[in-house]
Amino acid sequence: MVYELPESELIAQGAEARLHKGTYLGKTVLIKERFEKKYRHPDLDTRLTKERIKAEARAIVRAKTAGVGTPALYLVDFNRRSIFMQFIENATMLKTFIEQHITGRDDDTAKILMNNVTSALGQAVAKLHSKNIVHGDLTTSNILLKDAESLANAKAETDVSEQLVVIDFGLARVESTSEDAAVDLYVLERSLSSAHAQVPELFGLIYKSYQKFFKNKSHLKEVISKYEDVKARGRKRTMVG
Fold first, then answer.
1. Does pTM surpass 0.70?
2. Which sequence ranges are marked TM in the entry (predicted)?
């Protein structure tokens, strides 16, 4: 039996889940509801959905423990196939911020903004990978900025890591290998080259920050080696077509 969600507003839908804006214990919340897959046997669908909800909730908690900004987790409701989490009011996607304030600009302010956000993102990914957490879908659409207006008015390079919120841990893993981390980096690199082709410096700056903030340097060395392997395989597939 699938229980209905409390009164809420559908704000987005993807291949695996619906996102609703609602209220829980007097707080405005984001409700991520994994819907039924009719092509699967009901028992199998229920079991797989429960496992994925547990994995996502665990990843959010682990990421926050690692010092990465994530939405606060309020409720995991298996009956409703849902996670109730903090709704980040007035947040801006990093993708939108880059398009509005960095793309197509070559002035000093744009360079400051680019250095600030890439440093913060590299730091966040390093914190995740240092704790063997891989996100699985690192894109600038899955990074929120809590106060984009103040960031856009920055006059100097500064640490803005407290402004970043990483979202959508639906593909995340909390027991990962160095190769998993390398693939995570490669996914980020490819997503940037696709979404922000006019700002080719982005990944290099993020990668530099990632290496700076990755505390375990022997672990980092393994990830870098695996990343070079993954990138080489990616190039080979592209050449073969």
1. yes
2. none
Decide if 137 is catalytic: yes
Look at the domain 91-235 and name its fold. Answer: Transferase(Phosphotransferase); domain 1 (1.10.510)
Where exactly are the structural domains of the chain? 8-86, 91-235
Instruction: Write out the chain's pLDDT in tens, 241 residues.
Output: 445 566 789 999 988 899 999 999 999 999 999 999 888 898 999 999 999 999 999 999 999 999 999 999 999 999 999 999 999 999 999 999 999 999 999 999 999 999 999 999 999 999 999 999 999 999 999 999 999 999 999 999 999 999 999 999 999 999 999 999 999 999 999 999 999 999 999 999 999 999 999 999 999 999 999 999 999 987 656 544 4
For residues 91 and 145, the answer to whether their CB atoms sit within 8 Å is yes
Q: Which of these is catalytic: 45, 77, 137, 147?
A: 137
Q: Give 214-221's long-range contacts (Cβ < 8 A, gap of 24+).
A: 214/126, 214/129, 214/130, 215/126, 215/130, 216/130, 219/130, 219/178
Residue type, 134: V
